[in-house]
Write the C-alpha cells for this entry.
Amino acid sequence: MRRLIVLVLGLAAALVLVPSAAIADSATHTYMLEMEGPNFGAATNGDMVTITGHADFSVNPKSADGSGAFTHARNGTVVGSGSWTATKLLDYQSYGCGIVFDMTLPPDFCGGKVKLRVMLTTPSGQLPATMTVICIIGPKAPASAFGDNRSEGAMLDVPGVINFNHTAGGDNVIIQTS
C-alpha cells in the first residue's frame, strides 16, 4: 500500500511539473544576429564563402527578417557574389548568454546556432538557400563547436549548386532583445 501511495504521489508531481516545463519552453524571445565582420564557410572542394549582415528573429512564433551580402571564392578568385534576404527561421539552438570561455559579457549577448531560410540574389538570378550561423557564447556551447570542422562562422547550403558545410571563422553576436 505504501508503494502505491508513493507511486500516485510521484505521478501527481510529474503531471504538475510537465505543464510548467512546456510553458517555459514555449516562451517568446526575440534576437538580433549581427555579422558586421565577415563570417566564413568552406565547402569540401575548398571553395570559401564570406557572409556579412544582420537579421532579427523570433523563436515563438518562428520568424526572421534581415539581409546582408555574400561572396563565393575559389582559390582566392571571386566566382560569385550578391545579397541574401532572410525569409524564415528554421531553428535556433541557444548556447546561453553572458559568458564566453571565462569572460563575463553583457547578459543579453547570447550564443547558439541560428538556421535561416534565405533567398540569394545574384546577377544571374535568385537562389533559395539555407544559412546557418554559429556564435560561441554561453555556457552550453557543445564540445563539437570547438572541433576541427566547426568554429564560430557561417555555413551556406545552396541546393544543387554548392554546400559550404564547414564554418571557417567569423565575427558575430546574437543579442536577445526580449
